[in-house]
Design goal:
Elements: H1 4-9, E1 23-29, E2 35-41, H2 43-52, E3 56-59, E4 64-67, E5 76-83, E6 89-96, E7 112-113, E8 125-126, H3 135-139
Parallel strand pairs: 1-6
Antiparallel strand pairs: 1-2, 3-4, 5-6, 7-8
Amino acid sequence: MSSHAEIEEGMTLLPKFDADGLLTAVVTDAGNGDVLMVAHMNAEAVAKTIETGEAWFFSRSRKKLWKKGESSGHVQRVKELRVDCDQDALWLKVYQLGPGACHTGRRSCFYRAAPLGQTGPVKLEFRDADRTFDPRQVYEKK
């Protein structure tokens, strides 16, 4: 077990994975800072990302390791990988190769907003929601 000082101030990467062996990864555009996506990484995904310089994640739904862009070709080259203060979350600053990061065909997975100052059921609003590619052409098996 590592001490708080080692985790918070030390120079060794000591990721604190959750009970499922995962940690959260926030992915932003290295050029403009836009949030592109949030995903999860296990120890293997972290190691492969550091080793290759390309983003790797762990799919909770498919229960498998995946390289961003392995189906779409929309690879993420990592410019910088940061760890938060208690080493249970990562921030990847990436160069998004290809027109988008989202499987819905958009540049970012964050294309809807919840208006503030409302009560009751919240109706989402689209923001920067134009599709940059056709997901059917990219993901459907032929």
